[in-house]
Design goal:
Distance between the termini: 41 Å
Shape: globular
Largest sheet: 4 strands, parallel
Radius of gyration: 20 Å
Order of helices and strands: HEHEHEHEHHEHEHEHEH
Structural class: alpha/beta
Helix content: 40-55%
Length: about 325
């Protein structure tokens, strides 16, 4: 785990804990301060915000802890933000992705908290997985989630649909009066995700290459789902620096597997990807890990950006 990101938490934990105790004593309820009749839910970052809004509809008010354009791995919370969590009705997060959020949730006292990682199956990525995910070379150990597990489950539509079912259960437990509506909305969303999965499976079926190169190892679940190989410049942690040997390996791999494109991201520094592409004399492209939606995103929501990612992969892999 990246110790650097955890240091600010220790400095504020005592003050936050004291603030939470005082707040709980005067509020007596997780709904204190909310009088609009809606279920107030905090989502830790965009993919969980999207699910909650799609499932909750008009019955929920959703707050995203991670502002657009901010790398979720780097999120830090102020004592005020941490204390404010105790007033929410539910919290949806992904344990291991954002250490600051994990710590704040422990102190919040909110009854309805749901870990998206517990709603599906996580795997270790960053080394070869069934021949389809070599990724990070010397950076394989730099994972933000527990025991080196890859947290990027939302980039696999099948796993993401499993998380949607878990969010449905969480909202229904927090707001039983609208349980039927949440289930209806979830069923509709899962159909969209099933359709997206079929688009990927069909769209990548006939291709001339299986290998794509990315900035950091975010696409392991997607690669595994569709029989592809992701070769990442850096590790699961987007801030990890590639070693010299890793860069040499990428040169060899690119030639061997006829790599045509090096992908960079919308909210991460593209310099290393562009340098590698220049050295290899190949194109660059955008493959969005969907950790947030900004004006630079190639789509207005999860489905549209995933469809843009599919089109980018088809071009890079020679898919018909």
């Amino acid at each position: 785990m990246n110790v650097r990101r955890l240091i600010p938490l220790t400095a504020v934990s005592a003050a936050v804990a004291a603030g939470l105790i005082a707040l709980a004593a005067c509020s007596g309820s997780s709904t204190a301060g909310h009088n609009d009749g809606k279920l107030h839910v905090v989502a830790s970052f965009y993919p969980l915000q999207y699910l909650t809004q799609q499932i909750g509809g008009d019955h929920v008010s959703v707050t995203n802890l991670t502002k657009p354009g901010v790398e979720p791995h780097d999120l830090e919370l102020s004592p005020r933000q941490t204390v404010a969590l105790s007033r929410e009705d539910a919290i949806i997060y992904l344990k291991g992705l954002q250490p600051a959020v994990d710590e704040a949730i422990k102190q919040s006292g909110v009854k309805h908290t749901a870990d998206a990682a517990a709603m599906t199956t996580l795997e270790k990525h960053g080394t070869e997985v069934d021949g389809h995910h070599h990724t990070t070379g010397d950076n394989a150990s730099h994972s933000e989630s527990e025991a080196g597990l890859d947290p990027h489950i939302w980039l696999d539509p099948v796993r993401y649909a499993q998380v949607a079912r878990g969010v449905d259960r969480t909202l229904a437990a927090a707001d039983p009066a609208h349980k039927a509506d949440y289930r209806k909305n979830t069923d509709a969303l899962v159909k969209k995700l099933d359709a997206l999965n079929k688009q990927y499976a069909e769209g990548l079926k006939s291709r001339t290459s299986d290998t794509f190169v990315t900035t950091h190892a975010a696409f392991g679940y997607l690669a595994e789902r569709y029989g592809l190989t992701e070769e990442a410049i850096s590790g699961i942690d987007p801030e990890s620096e590639p070693s010299v040997s890793r860069m040499k390996d990428l040169h060899s791999l690119a030639a061997k597997h006829h790599v045509s494109t090096v992908f960079f991201e919308t909210i991460a520094n593209p310099d290393t990807a562009r340098t590698l592409a220049g050295d290899l004399h190949v194109k660059t492209g955008v493959l969005d890990p969907l950790e947030g939606i900004t004006d630079k995103s190639r789509g207005r929501d999860y489905i549209q950006v995933m469809q843009s990612n599919l089109a980018a992969l088809q071009r890079a892999l020679g898919a018909k």
